[in-house]
Amino acid sequence: MKTKLARKTAKGQQPYDDALRPRKRTAKAPKPKVRPLLPPGLASSGLSSAPAPGAVPFRDLCEERVRELYPGLKPRNDFDLLQLASEHYKGTNAEVLAALDVDLAETSEDLGYEFMMEESTKCLDALVEPTGVKPGQSAYVHHKFVFVRPIPDCKYSLRLFPGSLSAAEYCLDFVDSATGEPVNSPFEYELWAVPDPDTPWLSMPITGKLRSIERGHGIKQEDILLGEEKFVLRDGQTCVLMRPGKQPVRFTVPLRRVETTDVVEDVYVIDLPKVVGP
């Protein structure tokens, strides 16, 4: 549960196909001193007190997540609830509570106890458009426009499922083609964002290697919870899945139609075809 996917290209990275080599690299941002307050399994596109399409109470999502990850463990306060939904604590309930006390002490030393408690409550009381909640994972998130497509010469499939409509975010994960169960990086691959092949001149002429939400937030591959790994893409984004020794796979994320408002623009629209040809 995390806020934003890090879409930066790391130094020295390059795809298996040199034709997709990135032309621009950006420096890594310094690691924040205090952990973000949003859970890494929920890539929420934003917190808001105003209703938005598909918005749900963030507190409900966190409570649901904690019940799933820590059966029988009751958060003592809002900081506990947010941390338990954000981090993967190991050990007995007593050991988890002790670790929470350490985290609270460390963050309070920098920002103050009251500030951490107030920010935790403010975060939990907001409405969110969740991105990153997988189909069937939450009783509060109902998915439509889920697409599963088999990967050639592979026992796994790509699954695309929608996230925040306001932020035009779509998610991708891998599933076992036979069972439909999600899996974490089941084979060697690289996922790249590329310009639109139909109109490359209308987008930035660069490519960028994509990382999963979990890897983007510093979680080691072996520490990602079973079936939790996911990528955040954008509506209409074109991607290429590169696999060593195998044919690349290209796909374009669907565009969701947004309801128009009642506001009428004072403009005359010229009627022209979108595509022409012989």
Automatic annotation (TrEMBL):
<feature type="region of interest" description="Disordered">
    <location>
        <begin position="1"/>
        <end position="51"/>
    </location>
</feature>
<feature type="compositionally biased region" description="Basic residues">
    <location>
        <begin position="22"/>
        <end position="34"/>
    </location>
</feature>
<feature type="compositionally biased region" description="Low complexity">
    <location>
        <begin position="40"/>
        <end position="51"/>
    </location>
</feature>
<feature type="compositionally biased region" description="Basic residues">
    <location>
        <begin position="1"/>
        <end position="10"/>
    </location>
</feature>
<protein>
    <submittedName>
        <fullName>Uncharacterized protein</fullName>
    </submittedName>
</protein>
